[in-house]
Design brief:
two-stranded antiparallel sheet, globular, 2 strands, 80 residues, 3 helices, alpha+beta
Length: 80
């Protein structure tokens, strides 16, 4: 079991809901920088720059819905 502190949850809150934009940008341009990823909340950019490298991101898991309408991606980001 992994316990996550309230502070960590607050720190990474700007990244909630951003994985699709991050995934698409990194897959389309593996050499991109975080500022090249469009439409993220402004608070997400400094957080991404300080903790993660886009070029080390990889697709970890793909899960299709039972009706094949949606797909969930688990993206593995390497810590700096």
């Amino acid at each position: 079991m992994v316990l996550v502190s309230e502070r960590v949850i607050q720190d990474f809150a700007p990244l909630c809901g951003c994985t699709a934009a991050v995934r698409l940008s990194v897959l389309q341009n593996p050499d991109c920088e975080w500022d090249d990823v469009p439409s993220l909340p402004s608070a997400a950019y400094p957080l991404l720059r300080s903790h993660f490298k886009p070029s080390t991101s990889s697709l970890h898991t793909v899960i299709d819905s039972s009706d094949n309408v949606t797909t969930k991606f688990l993206i593995k980001l390497q810590l700096r």
